[in-house]
Write a sequence for this structure.
DNA sequence: GGCCAATGTATCCAGTGGATACAATTTTTC
DNA sequence: GAAAAATTGTATCCACTGGATACATTGGCC
């Protein structure tokens, strides 16, 4: 007896997140409208407010979810490769894949403005990047890394990937050059070669 | 007889740009409202539409202006320093200074969504980065650079700076670590220690 | 001096985020 | 098992925004 949609949706929160994710992916975070999401789901525009009091709360939730997915991808890249250089390359590729295939979401994740739940976003980011730092620590232990602070090196590496994605994202770099850029970046970071 | 503000503002376009710049600097591009800018200037909300048909046009104009200012700063950094390593450092510092002191504007400049005038934004960006490429070509000529494609090296360098600014921007990196990060990045890019 | 284009004004519309009072439903409690 | 309470969604406001259009004022050009 689930026809004629019951008064209670069931799991509105997840439905809203799914629809919002789709909208962001297709049209960007700026175009996201609470009302539109609500109506396409089939509820009043005020209904999602039970879960997301304001628009920014929804955006924050999307960002947290995004970092969670990114972290999983990075961890997976680490787990399915072995050896320092291979791991670095795998992580770099996974990171850039994510940022480019989910460009709008990435822009949202790294946006400046986060709402009351901004801490959660920050924690999500930290958790996502933890595998990277771990990798760099191992790299230093194996001597494959210069004797600098692995945390700093990791950050610079991260920054480089982030920047490459950004340049591709905003059109300064054509996607075709992407692999070459990764090669250059890796060469510079592996220290050797 | 300029009291009692004349019917014609005089140079509304520039006034709008100035006010919009201030708003973006203080509250970010997302908060920018054509109407608010118009009323604080003292004209009807429809008046600026003569110059900026839509909100996005104003944002694009701000981005173009931003790239122009950034380009000037980079060129200045190049002109007031000599020697490859010094120039690289000067440019990096100038670039990061700009991006951090004008964080909101930078976010706007590198945003994905540009309107009908998007080409102008792209050209502005290219013009701003021209001094950088020039510097890298010289660096290669002087042999201070590895024998890779200077264009690609420049892009990776650019990406790294961009990424560092982004990480600082979104709070992943505390500003205090900035100088150290720059040092690391420079060490990796100068190729020599 | 008078015409005409440029520049602002005055008003309208649809859509959005936000807030609040109210109704339907589920869960808890006795 | 029924009444009370908490949850979840609805219905309706408000202020504001971007956008569009018709109208008024001004300044330059002949």
């Amino acid at each position: 007896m689930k026809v004629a949609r019951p008064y209670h949706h069931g799991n509105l929160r997840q439905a809203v997140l799914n629809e919002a994710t789709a909208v962001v992916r297709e049209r960007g975070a700026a175009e996201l409208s609470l009302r539109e999401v609500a109506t396409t789901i089939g509820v009043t525009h005020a209904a999602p407010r039970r879960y997301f009091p304001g628009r920014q709360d929804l955006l924050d939730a999307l960002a947290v979810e995004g970092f969670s997915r990114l972290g999983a991808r990075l961890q997976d890249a680490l787990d399915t490769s072995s050896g320092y250089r291979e791991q670095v390359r795998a992580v770099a590729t996974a990171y850039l894949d994510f940022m480019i295939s989910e460009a709008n979401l990435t822009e949202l994740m790294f946006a400046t403005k986060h709402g009351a739940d901004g801490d959660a976003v920050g924690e999500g980011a930290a958790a996502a990047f933890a595998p990277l730092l771990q990798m760099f620590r191992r790299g230093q232990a194996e001597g494959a890394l210069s004797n600098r602070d692995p945390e700093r090196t990791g950050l610079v590496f991260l920054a480089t990937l982030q920047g490459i994605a950004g340049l591709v994202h905003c059109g300064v770099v054509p996607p075709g050059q992407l692999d070459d850029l990764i090669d250059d970046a890796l060469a510079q970071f592996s220290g050797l070669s």
Notes: Residues 6-8, 33-36, 45-46, 49, 53-55 of chain A lie near DNA strand C (CB under 10 Å from a C1'). Helices of chain A lie at 12-27, 34-41, 55-79, 84-101, 103-109, 118-141, 150-169, 178-190. Residues 55-190 of chain A form a domain with the Tetracycline Repressor; domain 2 fold (CATH 1.10.357.10). Chain A touches chain B at residues 28, 30, 103-104, 107, 110-113, 122, 125-126, 129, 148-149, 152-153, 155-156, 158-164, 166-167, 169-173, 177, 180-181, 184-185, 187-189 (CB under 8 Å).
